[in-house]
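Record now logged underneath.
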Amino acid sequence: MLPPAQPSGRPSGLLPGLLREWRRRWPGWPVTTGVPDAPEITRVKIRGYLFAVVAATPGLVMLLHLLVQKGAWVTAGLHLTVMVGAVALFFMVIRRPARLPLAEWVFAGLLTLSGVGFLVLYAQRPEQVLGHDLLGSVVLFIVAGLLVVLPPQASVPLALTLLLAYRAEVRQFSGLSSAELLVPQWVNNGMFALLIVGVVMRQTLSELAGRMHAVQELSVRDPLTGLLNRRGFDTQVQAERAVNAGGSLLVLDVDTFKPINDRFGHAVGDQVLELIGRVLQQHTPEGGVAARWGGEEFIVFTPGSEDDAAHLAETIRAAVAATPWNDLRVTVSIGVSGWEADEAMQHAFLRADDAMYAAKAAGRNRVMQAGPHQRTTGTAGPARPPHDEITGPEHAAAHERRHGE
């Protein structure tokens, strides 16, 4: 029997279990769930952060110059760290947008450290380096940043703590009376309330977009293997061929899959399909598209030539055959066909499908290229399929039905 498959996207062990429990109790804590933001959300966030960096840079540079002039070296160092860190994180996200959630939490940590540094500086040297009004603007800037980059469950308590600490320090060290501080403090309260409303609205829209993205993923992805389904394959291949016309198709079929299901049960059969899906994900090249076509049949589009696709097919065949399946021997037969730029997919698919059937008839566990001069790679096998496969007229009828789908 195959060993039980680990649930996808959820590692086992004591530490991951503790992290999941922490996330259940503290929803704002950044324990990854394996579900990234929708691409539309990520693009909007990156553009918004770029605008914020450009707009805030002049004021941040002038504040750094003031801190250096006043000799507040520790706070200046913290402030410079935040500035450099923000730029570094932004370029990191530009190169790999999937890192955006991690970058947001790192930047929030830098902002919080900077806020604490400014509050400590004011407590040590009140009204000497920063006046209470400039300190208020700085704290409000940091609070706005926290509310933007973190979810409300984490950002609101943190921002409220910084604001309360600021108000307590100003009341204690500024030398102003409560009446003199009343108006600016209420203005700050109003600005803070507006920021919270905006953040909650943003979070709500983000969750709605994320749900729509999840629904869209379910409509184009096979839930068992994680590969694309037919609809997703068609859509993504059209996009790839719009950039680079031409390419090749690989049609794969699991050998003797019905006996596996009959002998070991459908749960083990599902594990076989899952692991073949992982092999395809590991070996599909950049610009290629892999999908589960239906049942135990898979399809791969590759932008390379037919010969390149045949080499890829042999790599996949060997990887499947070499995978440890315990007392099972699982193999695949693969048909390969070129796909011309001006050719309908159906024609290339039928040729690859015919080549796959020819590979099965030749003994299975092999790769066969379509065309008048078929070439075969793989291991030797029986000259005729065993009794568990459809042969003769029944095979021809089933083949015709497959082509008519």
User: Anything to note?
Assistant: The CA atoms of residues 38 and 210 lie 5 Å apart.
